[in-house]
């Protein structure tokens, strides 16, 4: 099991954002975390990345407890935040080199890792372009490559396709699915868009801080299109 979450609850003051959330994701699975705005997706990511800590509940990343061994657990985690965090005036390679240095990598080992990560996202030929010159889809791919440099086994992506056109969204979704099947990376992909979820994907539906459904997307959808099932369950269009 690559990611295990048990009984997480979280409140901002009196506003309860997560209610007894529990789930487990197997190695190499693509898991979509689907929820309307305000469902609690970013709060859950904040807890998984240790932006916030809670006295209750348990999180294990690749078998390591985030509470008992935070540094070891976080080493297994790659993160793509909702807001882009690339330096627009540096090249793709410079951005990734900076991140590699933060992980103690420099020289040839860093170059090998960076080239490998960029190649996986079909971005190697863009390595020396300034990020400012790239379109939104390529910026996102550079960001995903950056999140892979330290060779995490679990990758979290918080609504990574926000603001992208349909073609770029489809391309990024395909690339990240390939990371699961070809590299056995475990993915948790937050979204509010049902068309990013494939029938074979694992699906968690989060609504008002609670898990409403957990299973294969096609099983949860049943005889309805997933968008209709989601609307039926949450009252939200997606
Ligand atoms: N700093 C905060 N203070 C108070 N309430 C907050 C804060 N951040 C989030 N909330 C509330 O907590 C709930 C969960 O928010 P969260 O951002 O985790 O949801 P989300 O599913 O990520 O939504 P979105 O897709 O809009 O980012 C919402 O009701 C939100 O209004």
From TrEMBL:
PROSITE patterns in UniProt: ABC_TRANSPORTER_2
Keywords annotated in UniProt: ATP-binding, Nodulation, Nucleotide-binding, Transport
Coiled coil: none
Family (UniProt): Belongs to the ABC transporter superfamily.
Domain (ABC transporter) ranges: 3-233
Gene Ontology molecular function: ATP binding; ATP hydrolysis activity
Source organism, top-level taxon: Bacteria
Stored Pfam families: ABC_tran
Entries under Gene3D superfamilies matching the protein: P-loop containing nucleotide triphosphate hydrolases (3.40.50.300)
Name assigned to this protein: 2-phenylethanol ABC transporter ATP-binding protein
